[in-house]
Amino acid sequence: MKTIYYFSGTGNTLYLGKYLKENCSYNLVNISAVKDEKVILNGEIGFLFPVYAMGIPKIVEEFLKKVEIEKVDYLFAVATCGGSGYGIPFNQINDILSEKGRMLDYSEYCHMPDNYLKLFKAMPEDKAKIDIESSKGKMKTICDDILKGKKSSANSNIFLYPIFLLIYKFWRLGLKTVSKKFKLNDERCISCGICKDVCPVENIELIDGKPVWDKNCEDCLACANLCPTVAISCGGKSKYDNRYKNPYIGVNELKK
After folding, report:
1. Pairing of β 204-207 and β 210-213
2. Contacts of the segment 187-190: beta carbons below 8 A, 24+ positions apart
3. Is 243 helix (H, G, I), strand (E, B) or coil?
4. Smaller CB count within 10 Å for the chain: N or C?
């Protein structure tokens, strides 16, 4: 069995996953759809996810801590990120897996357009397509490496590790209050429910047709980015009307 478990908020990681599915013959499983199930890993396994605050998304960490490893022949992880690749995500994964008697065989970063509305103004679709096109070579290299069963680790800067870890811990602490930063423009909201449907952790409920956020936010900002009327803001660069969705991924593909 060849399976990739992925997490994707606005489609960048799913886009890479679909590429690997088509060219490396892997099955794709959305982590948000199986996060509450018992998952046993067998065969060739991959993990795909975006880098959050130099590390792994909370949902990915919780998933990895719960999975059971039976017989894994090849284990890899690829992180999508706005830059060229940096942080501590693979260190974190190996720390978790080592307690289960396993480590990653292969890890790599893959550039994708920035989509974190709190820090970056969303890239227009035409420029996003150009940016994604620039990553096609790296995607092919990753695919070839996986098909060959290559064993290598993405470079990790040991001198910056403490700084990256501090950034990540600060971000994780902030998740407890991040839901308070979401604001709804009632005049724009059309009560379509997309924000609720794309939330990977069921953190949004509709009350009288309007979204209300609970306290379990992942900070993926899918709700804000995928709202068709730009009715949701979350501070930072979301004050602009620009929003981001991978131009090759449909909203329905991002629903749990």
Report:
1. antiparallel
2. 188/229, 188/230, 188/231, 189/229, 189/231, 190/228, 190/229, 190/231
3. coil
4. N
CA 151, CA 242: separation in Å to the nearest integer? 40
Q: Residue 26: exposed, middle, or buried by beta-carbon count in 10 A (0-12, 13-18, 19+)?
A: buried
- Per DSSP bridges, beta strands 40-50 and 2-6 are parallel
Name residues whose C-beta falls within 8 Å of residue 31's C-beta, 6 or more positions apart in sequence: 5, 6, 7, 49, 59, 60, 63, 200
Torsion of CA 137, 245, 123, 215, to 10 degrees: -120
Residue-wise pLDDT tens digits, 46-58: 999 999 999 999 9
**pLDDT over threshold 90, residue 81:** yes
Tens-digit pLDDT profile for residues 207-241: 999 999 999 999 999 999 999 999 999 988 898 88
What is the Cα–Cα distance from 24 to 74, expressed in whole angstroms?
13
Section 7-14 average pLDDT? 98
> Taking Cα atoms as reference points, which of 47, 10, 14 lies closest to residue 219?
10
Is the model's pTM score more than 0.90?
Answer: yes
User: What are the backbone angles phi and psi of residue 198, rounded to the nearest 5°?
Assistant: -95, -10
Closest CA to 131 of 176, 82, 75: 82
Biggest CA-to-CA distance, the chain: 54
